[in-house]
Amino acid sequence: MNSFFATHDKRIRLHTPKNFTMILAICILLLGVCILASLALGSRLVSLQELVDGLFHPDVDSYGANVVRKRISRTIFGLFCGAALGVSGALMQSVTRNPIADPSILGVNTGAALFVVCGIAFLHINAANQYIWLALAGAVITASLVFGIGSMGQGGATPLKLILAGAATSAALSSLVVMIILPRSYAMDQFRFWQVGSVGSGTWSAISIFIPFLIVGILIAMITAPALNALVLGDDVATGLGVRTEILRLVAALASVILCGATTALAGPIAFVGLLSTHIMRLLLGPDLRFVIPMSAMAGAIILTISDVCGRLIGSPGELEVGVVTAFIGAPLLILLAIKSKVSSL
To answer: Is pTM beyond 0.90 here?
Structure first.
């Protein structure tokens, strides 16, 4: 068990990054600012007194205080979704050894969306606890399909082959989604709001459904982090260090799919958060996943929360869905990374 989940070989010398404490403090500060902004800003701006009343004075029944109370569940839900996507992106990049791997790029989001569409169109489901199991099944099957296609041929699952397999699979599944939705207006009405990606549906019920998946996914990620550090050196070296690479990839990929699938089921397919948060943390902290994974969770929570706030401010008096905002930010970044890295391995 120890050789699978961790490696203590002297050839791998990983230390706490020198700037870790400072970056952690900055992230905690940014997280606090994002939480306050999410509670205070939107189509209805609230005053400092209304914010205090909404948080600490349940007996106060003013309109502003009630607005703040309604935003609490949305804010917590956004933080959880961002954290899940951040960890999912870190795991996906490590498992595939691909610096631009992300659940959305590898088609996992689209697979989850297809199964949710089938549930809406054929099973007439409309509850979050039903969405989540369908989304997880779709995410697992799609991830397996992409890895299977990417592993074919000479050289196995190279970064470029996985990206191409993910793009092709995503395109094919997107076509199936359209084919199922178009003849069914009732399903289209329900699906079109979900598919954009939004944390507006973040109720306490959705949070309670989401928490077990979040805890399981992050625990698996942290337990496998030391062994994933060895995997960066290559399969042969990792095997020599006592890491069972195939089982490690399966477990880590499963954790990534659980986090991504649960988020997609409840918030819709939100792209690029995992890619952006993980790259920021790798740039600041280096490659050690013992630090990159938890800090990617914080970065993902910050990115998604501030994107939600920006969407509310830009679209006021309505709102611009957070999936649109993250795509607007993430798409240029993906192009830049692809140009700079030439889709090289980690």
So the answer is: no
